[in-house]
Amino acid sequence: MPIFGWVLIGIAVVLIILFALNYNSLVRLRNQVKNAWAQIDVQLKRRHDLIPNLVETVKGYAAHERETLESVTNARNLALGAIGKGVGAQSKAEADLSGALSRLLAVVENYPDLKANQNFLALQEELTSTENKISFSRQFYNDSVLGYNNKTQMFPSNVVAGIARFQADEFFEVEVPTEREAPKVSFT
Amino acid sequence: MWQQIRANQIRSAVLVAGMLAVLLLIGYFLGLAFLDSGVAGLFIALVIWGVMNLVAFFQGDSILLALSKARKIERDDHPRLYNVVEEMKIASGLEKMPNIYIIDDPALNAFATGRDPKRASVAITSGLLQKLNRDELQGVIGHEIAHVKNRDVLLMSLCSILLGTIVILAYYGTYMLFFSSMSGGRRSSGGGSAGGIILIIGIALMILAPIFARLIYFAISRKREYLADATSAQYTRYPEGLASALEKLGASTAQLQSANQATAPMYIINPFRKKGRPATDLSSTHPPISERIRILRSMAGGASLGDYDAAFRQAHKGGRGVIQPAAIASAGAVGLRAAEPEAVPREPEPSKLERTREVSDLMWRMNDYKTITCDCGTKLKVPAKLKRATIKCPHCGRTHPI
């Protein structure tokens, strides 16, 4: 075989290896994005699970805050119903839930007995942490999306992404302004 | 992030190779001097190093945790610590929840260990755990998780074993050189002036090699500390948390009882730190605390690695940064977040008396006693069965309706 043929084969082999490497790292990044998205769901679900317990505990001490308690329960039910109805609906429902929760926890300030309750303190820690975890998982999701999008748009991996149909992903943008400053539950 | 890790791996590999070269040089020379064969010495040095590495690789973390007298905790033992570690696990994208240990020691420190991110552990002293608020704890745990995520644990244990092997070989080599020269030289080859020259070169090598290796080791360690600080700020989006934790750490002088020279780089601050050391110290595993705080505090623009790098350059008046340019380019702008509401001055811990009172109040309440707080400060406990409509305070004599 002439030298020219060998060179062609060599170039083809290098191209195939490059393609495989880029393809694999695209798959890895895309899976990381998916996994990060799942993490957000896990934390949102954890918040839903914590709320009935919280409402019960507060009820024992502050029964006449019925309205606030009901609005939290309703917001939770709406958030549960919004699951699977798209990112927009879900993040709106979750934002409402955050708002209702922070109102409840502001009201709680008037009940020193409740604030001394061990069960409530444990719930308060769990809730603070869950809010943090929600915003950290969102942060990691966005970091992952950034890495993945860079890879799909930068040369040479963008060629591979074009052939194998890897599409850029969307960032988790918070539409509701109150949600933008990571839902902070104020306990002091 | 990936680029950062990869670029650092290359740079670190070069430094590790330098240390390995020092080790091989010593092995070769010792072999030449005592076995008449450099290759045999080389081989022995490599075997010692290899065995130590295997032990460290498979048993290192359990040995270290046992040595530090750390006890493992679960979620229920300390929910807040567990939660903060979990938060940082999520922020860093670590696949598996690290094991958490508490060291019962009033000294303030924390460290991470584990050869890969799947087998990581973080340990914190009970003293530090008590002193920090939530934001500060987050910064410290972020720093430790960053060590795990950046693979510093593996790198630094590799380096400290190399250093250890070099030091041991040099130590015994010096003795052996002295001994053999005193007893007139057991070796038949190379008598006279040639033997003298070998002896001098040998002693110089034995003295210089450990110093040289130690300097490389410290240089690697300090760089990794800066990087872990930067990564922690990126995870928490709140450099002030780590900065104020470092401030508390720096103010304390209690030394950790169970710290160990070889593992010093894994701690958040140097456990063997002495007061009043010069700020630019080449023989320390950690950069000076004041400088780390200054860099973190001057990260005004944001919390990304690039912002840390800019702050670092500013602190060092130009010069090279600590972060690889590729890594900065690949990460976008990263905003800062506000302080946790809890970071506002906390109430002081209730005293023992107050806590006892609280518990006894709780007991009364559980037995259906009603409490009435009198204006004089006395708490009256009224049994549920009491039929009277009013009650008199035994201290001041005021009457209260029931």
Can you give a write-up of this model?
The complex is a heterodimer of chains A (188) and B (402). Chain A contains seven helices and no strands. Chain A has 188 residues and is mostly helical. Chain A has a single domain, classed as Up-down Bundle (de novo design (two linked rop proteins)), CATH 1.20.1440. The longest helix of chain A has 59 residues, at 3-61. The radius of gyration of chain A is 24 Å and the shape is rod-shaped. In chain B, the strands form three sheets. In chain B, strands 1-2-4-3 form a four-stranded mixed sheet, with helices on both faces. The longest helix of chain B has 45 residues, at 192-236. The N and C termini of chain B lie far apart (66 Å). Classes of the chains: A mainly alpha (188), B alpha+beta (402). The A-B interface holds A 32, 36, 39, 43, 116, 122, 125-126, 128-129, 132-133, 135-137, 139-140, 143-144, 146-147, 150, 181-182, 184-188 and B 1-2, 79-80, 83-84, 86-88, 90-93, 134, 235, 237, 330-332, 337-338, 340-342, 344, 358.
SSE order of chain A, one letter for each helix or strand? HHHHHHH
Unreliable spans of chain A are: 175-182
Class computed from helices, strands and strand pairing of chain A = mainly alpha
Biggest pleated sheet of chain B: 4 strands, mixed
State the shape of chain B.
Answer: elongated
CATH architecture of chain A: Up-down Bundle
The arrangement of helices and strands of chain B along the chain is HHEHEEEHHHHHHHHHEEEE
- The Rg value of chain A, from CA coordinates, equals 24 Å
State the distance separating the first and last CA atoms of chain A: 81 Å
What percent of residues of chain B adopt helix (DSSP H or I)? 55-70%
Any idea how many domains of chain B?
2
Q: Helix tally of chain A?
A: 7
Q: Tell me, what is the CATH class of chain A?
A: Mainly Alpha
In CATH, what is the homologous superfamily of chain A?
Answer: LemA-like domain
Q: Level of helix content of chain A? A: over 70%
User: How far is it from the N-terminal to the C-terminal residue of chain B, by CA?
Assistant: 66 Å
